[in-house]
Amino acid sequence: MRLGVxxxxxxxxxxxxxxxxxxxxxxxxxIEVGTGGWPGSNHIDLDACLQSxxxxxxxxxxxxxxxxxxxxxxxxxxxxxxxxxIAKDYDTVFRKTVRLAEKLGVRAVVTFSGCPGGGPEETRPxxxxxxxxxxxxxxxxxxxEQRLIPYWKDAGAFAADHGIGMAIEAHPGFxxxxxxxxxxxxxxxxxxxxxxxxxxxxxxxxxxxxAAIAYLGEAIFHVHAKDVALNTSNVARTGVLDAKSYTRMQxxxxxxxxxxxxxDELEWKRIASALRLAGYDHVISIxxxxxxxSIREGLGAxxxxxxxxxxxxxxxEAWWV
Length: 321
What we know:
Oligomer: single chain
Radius of gyration: 19 Å
Organism: Terriglobus albidus
Number of helices: 11
Number of strands: 10
Helix content: 40-55%
GO molecular function: isomerase activity
Strand content: 15-25%
Largest sheet: 8 strands, parallel, barrel
CATH architecture: Alpha-Beta Barrel
Structural class: alpha/beta
InterPro entries: IolE/XylAMocC-like, Xyl_isomerase-like_sf, Xyl_isomerase-like_TIM-brl
CATH superfamily: Divalent-metal-dependent TIM barrel enzymes
Domain Xylose isomerase-like TIM barrel: 52-299
Pfam families: AP_endonuc_2
């Protein structure tokens, strides 16, 4: 496996400045590049690279000259949003990203499953987490049968036609939010649909990562390295479902943390070992969203921990096949 980084952590830097900054971390040999949607596209011009072979070649050469490989292109969004204008915009970025990934020789594209409304007349997404009252079960069935499955059958086929694996990041707030829903979508939409495994979205749900990894197996197309710390006192009082602002750090049940500041090194070794057993041999991509640590503090802590956890080797071609 290789150690990588997801580029929004360097959103304020140009591509050249980011590549210079990464020289501080020689252990990092891969980069995940945002092309639009929520991660933004701070380091690549998606349209320019699609329209110009020279632009795409120049971008790829800059990455390679810095001693890096591209682990994935990421375009997190909601392509089944009930507002059709919003949904179309996310779908357009997704399809452009798939085409560019093929052009650059990148095998994985990361995004969200999305979340529709609870019915055809709704205008905002509706994340449903309970089967009762009974209308919730009806709404959830409608979401999957009328929106999610039809979209991802088509989108998955599009990705497969371009040789791309779709790494759906299971994230609360969207229809795919845990291992079970990830595998449900894969069963319906085909094997070009897999998962971007992010432990930070699983820990607070009470999911055991090695068990989840064993269950997901070959469906793991890409991996994020981000941690979560639970405030046991707040959990004891209010549980883990927490819609308070991330700025209310002392009041929340859990917070995103840098790797090693939520779970210890042994836990991350358990994750790395489980990934090996599952056949995953690609990149572990560090994502920094720790409000308690600066970029250099958080990234440095993650690199230090993960460098002791994984034995870096070049990624295997078509690891999910």
